Amino acid sequence: MNPAPTSPPPDYARLAAVGPYFALGTSPAGRPPEGFRPLAELYGTGPDAPLAARLRVVARRLGTGEPRVAASILHLGLAARFWSVGLGSAVLLGTVPTLEDAWMRIPDQGPLDLWTPPEPARTDPIRTESARTESARPDAATLADRLHETVLLGQLEPLAATVRAAAPLSPRLLLGNAASALGGTLRVLDAHAPGAARPLVAELLDREPLAGSGTLRTGPYGTAFRRNSCCLYYRVGPGAGLCGDCCFSTPPGRGRRAG
Fold it and tell me: How far apart are CA 190 and CA 56, in angstroms?
């Protein structure tokens, strides 16, 4: 019996063309670049943990004395980073990286650097020879399952726990951040692969735990998402204003606790 043909590793280099939030490094040698550390270390707690140290940097750059404001903005950016890699891979490559053995580096500026060793494209267990074609990619429900497993459960769930250990943020606010980051990722991908990501995002927003976190609208002129919570960006300062998908139409009073 001839051995079953194996799928080549996904070409993650294609993701970088969309933007820095989508980039995922890899190499045939299977060794991370110098200065990278296991991604799992991002979810450590304590004052010397990577995320706690980054939180202090973000607070200083934002000029805020409220740790929860800086923590929410940091969480939103990291959620966007993970969604970009996952959703971008699903749409452009037809697969979702597991990120189980991923490594990371926290740069001085810009999004988190991510690197993963080569891994084969994930395919359905039963696949005929004729189905191993570009047109036989997993359907939206299958890719949504993988995104739910890899991004929501694998990354955003431990990330939320780590952020809440560093600052008092409500689970509802962090779910709103996750949904907002997903909506933002969709808008970027729509410009590169029009309409391709919409079924996936709609499926994920209909599932727990994101169900009820906001409203997604799509149409011939683009997409719009309005969340049912606030990321607290308006508390950065008097001129900060509101994000485009905020639940508020005007910034609430400074004494009001949004979330």
Answer: 34
What does the pLDDT read at residue 133? Answer: 42
Average pLDDT score over residue span 123-127:
39
Q: For residue 259, name the pLDDT band (cuts at 50, 70, 90).
A: low
Q: What whole-number distance in Å separates Cα of residue 95 and Cα of residue 190?
A: 18
CA distance 173 to 179: 10
140-147 vs 67-93: helix crossing angle, rounded to 10? 140
Place of tokens 């267990």: 125
CB proximity list for 221: less than 8 A, separation 6 or greater: none
User: Is the pTM here over 0.70, yes or no?
Assistant: yes
Q: Are 89 and 95 a contacting pair, CB within 8 Å?
A: yes
Task: Count the domains in the chain.
Answer: 1
Q: Which domain holds residue 59?
A: 12-121+137-236
